[in-house]
Amino acid sequence: MAFCSMFSCVKSSDRKKQGKKETTWRIFSLKELQLATNNFNYDNKLGEGAFGSVYWGQLWDGSQIAVKRLKSWSDKAEVEFSVEVEVLARVRHKNLLTLRGYCAEGQERLIVYDYMANLSLLSHLHGQHSAECQLDWNRRMKIAVGAAEGIAYLHHHATSHIIHRDIKASNVLLDGDFQAQVADFGFAKFIPDGATHVTTRVKGTFGYLAPEYAMLGKASESCDVYSFGVLLLEIASGKKPLEKLNSRLDGKYVEEELKRLVFVGLVCAHNRPEKRPTMLEVVELLKGDREKIATLENDEMFKTILATDSGAEDSPDFVSEEKEQKDEIENA
Ligand SMILES: Nc1ncnc2c1ncn2[C@@H]1O[C@H](COP(=O)(O)OP(=O)(O)OP(=O)(O)O)[C@@H](O)[C@H]1O
Ligand SMILES: [Mg+2]
Protein backbone atom coordinates (compact mmCIF):
# COMPACT_ATOMS: atom_id res chain seq x y z
CA MET A 1 0.00 0.00 0.00
CA ALA A 2 1.45 3.31 -1.13
CA PHE A 3 0.51 5.16 2.06
CA CYS A 4 2.64 2.89 4.22
CA SER A 5 5.81 4.33 2.71
CA MET A 6 4.66 7.82 3.71
CA PHE A 7 4.52 6.85 7.33
CA SER A 8 8.11 5.71 7.33
CA CYS A 9 8.89 9.45 7.07
CA VAL A 10 8.11 9.90 10.78
CA LYS A 11 11.48 10.49 12.40
CA SER A 12 11.94 9.32 15.95
CA SER A 13 13.99 12.46 16.69
CA ASP A 14 10.82 14.47 15.92
CA ARG A 15 9.07 12.92 18.89
CA LYS A 16 11.66 14.19 21.29
CA LYS A 17 10.93 17.81 20.48
CA GLN A 18 9.04 19.89 23.01
CA GLY A 19 5.27 19.72 22.92
CA LYS A 20 5.11 16.43 21.14
CA LYS A 21 2.69 13.72 22.08
CA GLU A 22 3.17 10.04 21.56
CA THR A 23 0.51 8.32 19.50
CA THR A 24 0.27 5.43 17.17
CA TRP A 25 -1.76 5.20 14.01
CA ARG A 26 -3.06 2.15 12.22
CA ILE A 27 -5.08 1.05 9.24
CA PHE A 28 -8.78 0.55 9.98
CA SER A 29 -11.09 -1.79 8.10
CA LEU A 30 -14.26 -0.33 6.61
CA LYS A 31 -16.28 -2.83 8.65
CA GLU A 32 -14.73 -1.60 11.91
CA LEU A 33 -15.55 2.03 11.07
CA GLN A 34 -19.09 1.12 9.98
CA LEU A 35 -19.58 -0.60 13.33
CA ALA A 36 -18.06 2.32 15.26
CA THR A 37 -20.29 4.93 13.59
CA ASN A 38 -23.50 2.87 13.42
CA ASN A 39 -23.03 2.62 9.67
CA PHE A 40 -22.36 6.37 9.30
CA ASN A 41 -25.71 7.09 10.85
CA TYR A 42 -27.07 10.62 10.41
CA ASP A 43 -27.36 10.92 14.21
CA ASN A 44 -23.60 10.42 14.49
CA LYS A 45 -22.80 13.28 12.10
CA LEU A 46 -20.65 16.00 13.68
CA GLY A 47 -20.44 18.30 10.71
CA GLU A 48 -19.84 18.60 7.02
CA GLY A 49 -17.10 20.33 5.04
CA ALA A 50 -16.26 20.82 1.40
CA PHE A 51 -14.68 17.38 1.09
CA GLY A 52 -16.98 15.20 3.15
CA SER A 53 -18.83 14.53 6.37
CA VAL A 54 -17.40 13.91 9.82
CA TYR A 55 -19.00 11.28 12.10
CA TRP A 56 -18.64 10.52 15.81
CA GLY A 57 -17.81 6.92 16.61
CA GLN A 58 -16.80 4.58 19.40
CA LEU A 59 -14.31 1.77 19.00
CA TRP A 60 -14.55 -1.64 20.66
CA ASP A 61 -12.17 -0.45 23.42
CA GLY A 62 -14.57 2.40 24.29
CA SER A 63 -12.40 5.19 22.87
CA GLN A 64 -14.16 7.94 20.94
CA ILE A 65 -13.16 8.84 17.40
CA ALA A 66 -14.10 11.25 14.63
CA VAL A 67 -14.23 9.77 11.14
CA LYS A 68 -14.00 11.96 8.06
CA ARG A 69 -15.63 10.20 5.12
CA LEU A 70 -14.59 11.77 1.85
CA LYS A 71 -17.61 12.64 -0.25
CA SER A 72 -17.18 10.96 -3.57
CA TRP A 73 -14.14 9.44 -5.07
CA SER A 74 -12.34 11.79 -7.45
CA ASP A 75 -8.75 12.76 -8.25
CA LYS A 76 -9.17 15.89 -6.10
CA ALA A 77 -10.50 13.89 -3.14
CA GLU A 78 -7.68 11.39 -3.53
CA VAL A 79 -5.09 14.19 -3.40
CA GLU A 80 -6.77 15.78 -0.37
CA PHE A 81 -6.86 12.38 1.36
CA SER A 82 -3.23 11.51 0.75
CA VAL A 83 -1.93 15.01 1.63
CA GLU A 84 -3.87 15.06 4.88
CA VAL A 85 -2.74 11.56 5.88
CA GLU A 86 0.86 12.22 4.90
CA VAL A 87 1.10 15.52 6.78
CA LEU A 88 -0.68 14.30 9.89
CA ALA A 89 1.44 11.16 10.02
CA ARG A 90 4.58 13.32 10.07
CA VAL A 91 3.59 15.69 12.82
CA ARG A 92 2.96 15.13 16.50
CA HIS A 93 2.20 18.10 18.73
CA LYS A 94 -0.18 18.80 21.59
CA ASN A 95 -1.89 21.49 19.49
CA LEU A 96 -2.21 19.52 16.25
CA LEU A 97 -5.07 17.05 15.78
CA THR A 98 -3.87 13.48 16.17
CA LEU A 99 -4.28 10.99 13.36
CA ARG A 100 -5.58 7.64 14.62
CA GLY A 101 -5.41 6.04 11.20
CA TYR A 102 -7.13 5.71 7.87
CA CYS A 103 -9.11 3.34 5.69
CA ALA A 104 -8.78 3.04 1.93
CA GLU A 105 -11.03 0.23 0.72
CA GLY A 106 -12.48 0.22 -2.78
CA GLN A 107 -13.68 3.75 -3.41
CA GLU A 108 -14.06 4.59 0.29
CA ARG A 109 -11.52 7.02 1.76
CA LEU A 110 -11.81 7.60 5.50
CA ILE A 111 -9.57 9.38 7.97
CA VAL A 112 -9.80 8.61 11.67
CA TYR A 113 -8.91 11.24 14.31
CA ASP A 114 -9.17 11.73 18.04
CA TYR A 115 -12.66 12.98 18.87
CA MET A 116 -12.69 16.61 20.04
CA ALA A 117 -15.48 16.91 22.60
CA ASN A 118 -15.94 20.66 22.13
CA LEU A 119 -15.99 20.52 18.32
CA SER A 120 -14.57 23.60 16.59
CA LEU A 121 -13.78 27.19 17.54
CA LEU A 122 -16.28 28.17 14.83
CA SER A 123 -19.10 26.30 16.56
CA HIS A 124 -18.44 28.29 19.78
CA LEU A 125 -17.92 31.68 18.15
CA HIS A 126 -20.69 31.57 15.56
CA GLY A 127 -22.30 28.10 15.43
CA GLN A 128 -24.37 25.64 17.44
CA HIS A 129 -22.59 26.32 20.76
CA SER A 130 -22.37 30.10 20.47
CA ALA A 131 -25.46 30.75 22.61
CA GLU A 132 -23.86 28.85 25.53
CA CYS A 133 -21.15 31.53 25.84
CA GLN A 134 -18.51 29.04 26.98
CA LEU A 135 -15.60 31.01 25.57
CA ASP A 136 -14.64 33.32 28.40
CA TRP A 137 -11.54 35.45 28.07
CA ASN A 138 -9.18 32.90 29.68
CA ARG A 139 -10.26 30.21 27.27
CA ARG A 140 -9.89 32.55 24.30
CA MET A 141 -6.33 33.41 25.31
CA LYS A 142 -5.49 29.74 25.87
CA ILE A 143 -6.90 28.83 22.45
CA ALA A 144 -4.98 31.69 20.76
CA VAL A 145 -1.66 30.66 22.32
CA GLY A 146 -2.26 26.91 21.76
CA ALA A 147 -3.19 27.33 18.08
CA ALA A 148 -0.14 29.63 17.61
CA GLU A 149 2.11 26.95 19.12
CA GLY A 150 0.68 24.28 16.82
CA ILE A 151 1.26 26.41 13.70
CA ALA A 152 4.72 27.48 14.92
CA TYR A 153 5.58 23.78 15.21
CA LEU A 154 4.50 23.19 11.58
CA HIS A 155 6.54 26.16 10.34
CA HIS A 156 9.67 25.78 12.40
CA HIS A 157 10.03 22.31 13.89
CA ALA A 158 8.44 19.77 11.55
CA THR A 159 11.00 17.72 9.62
CA SER A 160 9.95 19.36 6.34
CA HIS A 161 8.55 22.80 7.00
CA ILE A 162 4.83 22.76 6.40
CA ILE A 163 2.37 25.53 5.58
CA HIS A 164 -1.24 24.81 6.40
CA ARG A 165 -2.99 27.14 3.89
CA ASP A 166 -6.42 26.92 5.52
CA ILE A 167 -6.12 28.41 9.00
CA LYS A 168 -9.63 29.42 10.10
CA ALA A 169 -12.07 29.02 12.98
CA SER A 170 -13.58 25.73 11.76
CA ASN A 171 -10.12 24.20 11.51
CA VAL A 172 -9.24 24.91 15.14
CA LEU A 173 -10.83 22.09 17.11
CA LEU A 174 -11.30 22.10 20.89
CA ASP A 175 -10.83 19.12 23.19
CA GLY A 176 -12.67 18.50 26.47
CA ASP A 177 -10.47 21.10 28.23
CA PHE A 178 -10.85 23.68 25.44
CA GLN A 179 -7.29 23.06 24.36
CA ALA A 180 -6.83 24.08 20.70
CA GLN A 181 -5.94 21.45 18.13
CA VAL A 182 -5.27 22.66 14.61
CA ALA A 183 -6.91 20.36 12.04
CA ASP A 184 -7.52 19.86 8.31
CA PHE A 185 -4.28 19.43 6.48
CA GLY A 186 -5.75 18.62 3.07
CA PHE A 187 -4.41 21.86 1.55
CA ALA A 188 -1.04 21.74 3.31
CA LYS A 189 2.23 22.16 1.41
CA PHE A 190 5.74 21.13 2.25
CA ILE A 191 8.25 23.96 1.80
CA PRO A 192 11.53 22.60 0.44
CA ASP A 193 14.63 23.51 2.45
CA GLY A 194 16.00 26.90 1.41
CA ALA A 195 12.87 27.97 -0.47
CA THR A 196 11.13 31.17 0.66
CA HIS A 197 7.80 30.27 -0.91
CA VAL A 198 6.12 27.96 -3.39
CA THR A 199 3.86 29.16 -6.20
CA THR A 200 0.62 27.25 -6.29
CA ARG A 201 -3.04 27.42 -7.21
CA VAL A 202 -4.94 29.34 -4.60
CA LYS A 203 -6.80 27.26 -2.00
CA GLY A 204 -8.26 28.44 1.24
CA THR A 205 -11.15 30.48 2.51
CA PHE A 206 -12.25 34.05 1.74
CA GLY A 207 -11.56 36.50 4.50
CA TYR A 208 -8.42 34.67 5.63
CA LEU A 209 -6.31 34.86 2.45
CA ALA A 210 -3.12 36.94 2.44
CA PRO A 211 -3.16 39.41 -0.50
CA GLU A 212 0.04 38.17 -2.15
CA TYR A 213 -1.29 34.62 -2.00
CA ALA A 214 -4.77 35.44 -3.32
CA MET A 215 -3.37 37.58 -6.16
CA LEU A 216 -0.15 35.83 -7.11
CA GLY A 217 -0.47 32.35 -5.62
CA LYS A 218 2.70 32.89 -3.56
CA ALA A 219 2.37 30.56 -0.60
CA SER A 220 4.75 30.83 2.33
CA GLU A 221 4.66 30.61 6.10
CA SER A 222 3.64 34.25 6.27
CA CYS A 223 0.35 33.44 4.49
CA ASP A 224 -0.54 31.30 7.51
CA VAL A 225 0.58 34.16 9.77
CA TYR A 226 -1.85 36.46 7.94
CA SER A 227 -4.74 33.98 8.31
CA PHE A 228 -3.83 33.53 11.95
CA GLY A 229 -3.92 37.32 12.40
CA VAL A 230 -7.47 37.37 11.03
CA LEU A 231 -8.34 34.51 13.39
CA LEU A 232 -6.96 36.46 16.39
CA LEU A 233 -9.14 39.43 15.48
CA GLU A 234 -12.09 37.03 15.18
CA ILE A 235 -11.35 35.57 18.64
CA ALA A 236 -11.08 39.06 20.15
CA SER A 237 -14.15 40.55 18.46
CA GLY A 238 -16.43 37.53 18.07
CA LYS A 239 -17.05 38.70 14.51
CA LYS A 240 -16.66 36.57 11.40
CA PRO A 241 -13.98 37.89 9.03
CA LEU A 242 -16.58 38.91 6.45
CA GLU A 243 -19.59 39.59 8.66
CA LYS A 244 -20.66 42.10 11.25
CA LEU A 245 -21.82 40.49 14.49
CA ASN A 246 -21.53 41.49 18.11
CA SER A 247 -19.05 39.93 20.54
CA ARG A 248 -20.57 37.73 23.25
CA LEU A 249 -17.87 38.60 25.77
CA ASP A 250 -20.28 41.12 27.29
CA GLY A 251 -17.50 43.41 28.49
CA LYS A 252 -15.76 40.63 30.45
CA TYR A 253 -12.15 40.49 29.32
CA VAL A 254 -8.65 41.37 30.50
CA GLU A 255 -8.01 44.72 28.87
CA GLU A 256 -4.26 44.34 28.52
CA GLU A 257 -4.65 40.89 26.94
CA LEU A 258 -7.38 42.09 24.60
CA LYS A 259 -5.12 44.90 23.41
CA ARG A 260 -2.31 42.37 22.99
CA LEU A 261 -4.49 40.00 20.95
CA VAL A 262 -5.76 42.77 18.65
CA PHE A 263 -2.27 44.21 18.32
CA VAL A 264 -0.70 40.86 17.39
CA GLY A 265 -3.64 40.14 15.04
CA LEU A 266 -3.06 43.43 13.21
CA VAL A 267 0.67 42.88 12.92
CA CYS A 268 0.12 39.34 11.58
CA ALA A 269 -2.45 40.59 9.04
CA HIS A 270 -0.08 43.20 7.61
CA ASN A 271 -0.53 43.61 3.85
CA ARG A 272 3.18 43.15 3.26
CA PRO A 273 4.41 39.63 4.07
CA GLU A 274 7.90 40.78 5.07
CA LYS A 275 6.38 42.91 7.83
CA ARG A 276 4.61 39.96 9.46
CA PRO A 277 6.23 38.25 12.45
CA THR A 278 7.12 34.55 12.42
CA MET A 279 4.89 32.15 14.34
CA LEU A 280 7.64 31.75 16.94
CA GLU A 281 7.50 35.51 17.54
CA VAL A 282 3.70 35.34 17.59
CA VAL A 283 3.81 32.76 20.41
CA GLU A 284 6.12 35.01 22.46
CA LEU A 285 4.03 38.11 21.79
CA LEU A 286 0.78 36.35 22.74
CA LYS A 287 2.32 35.06 25.95
CA GLY A 288 3.05 38.68 26.88
CA ASP A 289 6.78 39.17 26.25
CA ARG A 290 6.76 42.81 27.37
CA GLU A 291 10.04 43.72 25.76
CA LYS A 292 9.00 42.39 22.36
CA ILE A 293 5.59 44.05 22.56
CA ALA A 294 7.14 47.40 23.53
CA THR A 295 9.63 47.16 20.64
CA LEU A 296 6.85 46.45 18.16
CA GLU A 297 4.57 49.15 19.55
CA ASN A 298 7.26 51.75 19.11
CA ASP A 299 8.14 50.54 15.66
CA GLU A 300 7.20 52.81 12.76
CA MET A 301 5.75 49.69 11.12
CA PHE A 302 2.88 49.42 13.59
CA LYS A 303 1.93 53.06 13.17
CA THR A 304 1.91 52.48 9.41
CA ILE A 305 -0.35 49.45 9.81
CA LEU A 306 -2.88 51.45 11.77
CA ALA A 307 -2.83 54.26 9.21
CA THR A 308 -3.09 51.83 6.27
CA ASP A 309 -5.77 49.66 7.84
CA SER A 310 -8.01 52.61 8.62
CA GLY A 311 -8.39 53.15 4.87
CA ALA A 312 -8.79 49.46 4.07
CA GLU A 313 -12.57 49.61 3.59
CA ASP A 314 -12.14 52.00 0.67
CA SER A 315 -9.80 49.70 -1.22
CA PRO A 316 -11.30 47.31 -3.78
CA ASP A 317 -11.69 43.61 -3.00
CA PHE A 318 -8.55 42.30 -4.67
CA VAL A 319 -9.76 38.73 -4.77
CA SER A 320 -12.92 39.54 -6.69
CA GLU A 321 -10.80 40.66 -9.66
CA GLU A 322 -9.28 37.20 -9.92
CA LYS A 323 -12.37 35.51 -11.29
CA GLU A 324 -10.80 32.12 -11.95
CA GLN A 325 -9.14 31.98 -8.57
CA LYS A 326 -12.30 33.13 -6.85
CA ASP A 327 -14.30 30.35 -8.50
CA GLU A 328 -11.75 27.82 -7.37
CA ILE A 329 -11.75 29.12 -3.82
CA GLU A 330 -15.53 29.08 -3.72
CA ASN A 331 -15.59 25.54 -5.08
CA ALA A 332 -13.12 24.54 -2.42
N1 LIG B 1 -11.79 15.39 15.32
C1 LIG B 1 -12.99 15.98 15.41
N2 LIG B 1 -13.69 15.95 16.57
C2 LIG B 1 -14.88 16.57 16.66
N3 LIG B 1 -15.46 17.25 15.66
C3 LIG B 1 -14.83 17.32 14.48
C4 LIG B 1 -13.55 16.69 14.29
N4 LIG B 1 -13.16 16.94 13.01
C5 LIG B 1 -14.12 17.70 12.46
N5 LIG B 1 -15.13 17.92 13.33
C6 LIG B 1 -16.39 18.67 13.09
O1 LIG B 1 -16.81 18.46 11.78
C7 LIG B 1 -16.96 19.71 11.08
C8 LIG B 1 -16.63 19.51 9.62
O2 LIG B 1 -15.24 19.40 9.46
P1 LIG B 1 -14.54 19.58 8.05
O3 LIG B 1 -13.11 19.74 8.31
O4 LIG B 1 -14.94 18.47 7.16
O5 LIG B 1 -15.17 20.89 7.43
P2 LIG B 1 -15.01 22.46 7.80
O6 LIG B 1 -13.72 22.69 8.50
O7 LIG B 1 -16.25 22.89 8.53
O8 LIG B 1 -15.01 23.13 6.40
P3 LIG B 1 -13.85 23.04 5.29
O9 LIG B 1 -14.22 21.93 4.38
O10 LIG B 1 -13.91 24.36 4.62
O11 LIG B 1 -12.57 22.77 6.02
C9 LIG B 1 -16.02 20.68 11.83
O12 LIG B 1 -16.41 22.00 11.70
C10 LIG B 1 -16.12 20.18 13.27
O13 LIG B 1 -17.23 20.78 13.90
MG1 LIG C 1 -12.15 21.71 8.48
**Major beta sheet, strand line-up:** 1-5-6-4-3-2
Shape: globular
Q: Just name the CATH architecture of the largest domain.
A: Orthogonal Bundle
Query: How many separate helices?
Result: 13
Integer tally of domains: 2
CATH class of the largest domain: Mainly Alpha
CATH fold category name of the largest domain: Transferase(Phosphotransferase), domain 1
Low-pLDDT stretches are: 1-18, 309-332
Q: Could you estimate the helical fraction of the residues in percent?
A: 40-55%
For the sheet with most strands, the description reads: 6 strands, mixed
Bin the strand percentage: 15-25%
Under CATH, the homologous superfamily of the largest domain reads Transferase(Phosphotransferase) domain 1
InterPro entries: Kinase-like_dom_sf, Prot_kinase_dom, Protein_kinase_ATP_BS, Ser-Thr/Tyr_kinase_cat_dom, Ser/Thr_kinase_AS
Family: In the N-terminal section; belongs to the leguminous lectin family.
Protein name: PTI1-like tyrosine-protein kinase
GO molecular function: ATP binding; protein serine/threonine kinase activity
